[in-house]
Design a protein that fits this description.
Blueprint: E1 2-6, E2 9-14, E3 17-20, H1 26-29, H2 35-45, E4 59-60, E5 67-72, H3 76-85, H4 92-100, E6 105-110, E7 115-116, E8 121-124, E9 131-132, E10 135-141, E11 147-155, E12 157-158, H5 159-164, H6 169-173, E13 179-187, E14 197-204, E15 207-215, H7 223-230, E16 240-243, E17 261-266, E18 270-278
The structure holds 2,5-dioxopentanoic acid (DO4) and magnesium ion.
């Protein structure tokens, strides 16, 4: 079943039917131990909607109070690309070492107001000239550290800033509209099949300028082990989202441009589409309907 935050409230899609939940408390859902069972009970009591939500107009990012974290260098492709981009700065060996180390790289990616949903606008920084989307499976993790679902994530990244010095990573990764999640959350207690594909397509003026894909079998670490490291001495009273790293990275001569359309599709989970904008010095007039904080 899939869970959506919409402008009309929380909606669950199950067996082709859409049911509106009586409560709009998204945080409360991530405090429940068995969300799958909880939603089953809730849809048995709820009323099917007359019409499904408009996926291009009604969706909000599936985040209210949750922090978004990210794992890095979990795919061989990411290790390689990072070693290349930071070689001149002497950062190359850090990535090699973390790829093989027992402890994963985990970093804070976004607080809720920095997250956009499906059809929202993702940003490239005004002080960066080399930017890419990172298509990632994002885990929906409840307050007790249990993976209760999956969504599609985009870990927007400024490669020139990250490559100049690994200590600049937070600036390369964390800024307004630097993360996208959505369109909804696949709620399941079962792991995704290893052959689940993550596909990225970038279009510019109607033409595909990049397409690539990977499979989650290529992730080096068990997903629960990423969560277990994240929850060590670290509490998430309303749960959190954890992006699991990228295995799709365009060649080094590619950079995003304003107006590009980024679409990320993960089998069983859905397609997350966003338009790229460049940052300005003026505060951004966000489309509140599509950001995490309405
Ligand atoms: O170490 C830098 C970031 C890595 C990352 O975001 C990824 O591998 O997806
Ligand atoms: Mg990433």
């Amino acid at each position: 079943m899939k869970l959506f935050r919409t402008t009309q409230g929380i909606v669950v899609e199950h067996n082709g039917a859409h049911v509106g939940l009586s409560s709009n408390d998204f945080d409360a859902l991530l405090r429940v131990d068995d969300l799958h069972a909880h939603l089953h009970a809730a849809i048995d009591e709820g009323e099917p909607l007359d019409a499904p939500p408009d996926m291009d107009a009604d969706l909000l990012a599936p985040v209210v109070s949750q922090e978004v974290w990210a794992a890095g260098v979990t795919y061989y492709r990411s290790r390689d690309a990072r070693m290349e981009e930071s070689a001149a700065a002497g950062g190359g060996s850090f990535y090699d070492r973390v790829y093989d180390a027992p402890r994963p790289e985990l970093f804070m990616k976004a607080t809720p107001h920095r997250v956009v949903g499906h059809r929202g606008k993702v940003r490239i920084r005004q002080d960066s000239r080399w930017n890419v989307p990172e298509p990632e499976l994002a885990l929906c993790v409840n307050a007790r550290g249990r993976i209760v679902g999956y969504t599609v994530g985009n870990d927007m990244s400024s490669r020139d800033i990250e490559g100049e010095n690994p200590l600049y990573l937070p600036q390369a990764k964390v800024y307004d509209q630097s993360a996208a999640l959505g369109p909804g959350v696949l709620i399941t207690n079962d792991p995704l099949p290893p052959e689940t594909t993550i596909a990225l397509a970038i279009t510019r003026d109607g033409k595909t300028v990049f397409a690539g894909d990977t499979q989650i079998a290529q992730i080096k670490r068990p997903l629960q082990s990423l969560v277990d490291y994240l929850y060590r001495d670290n509490s998430f009273p309303q749960g959190c989202f954890l992006m699991t790293g990228t295995g799709v990275i365009p060649d080094n001569d590619f950079t995003l441009e304003p107006g590009d359309e980024v679409s990320i599709t993960i089998d069983h989970v859905g397609t997350l589409s966003n338009t790229v904008v460049r940052g300005t010095t003026a505060p951004v007039n966000r489309n509140a309907k599509r950001t995490a904080t309405p």
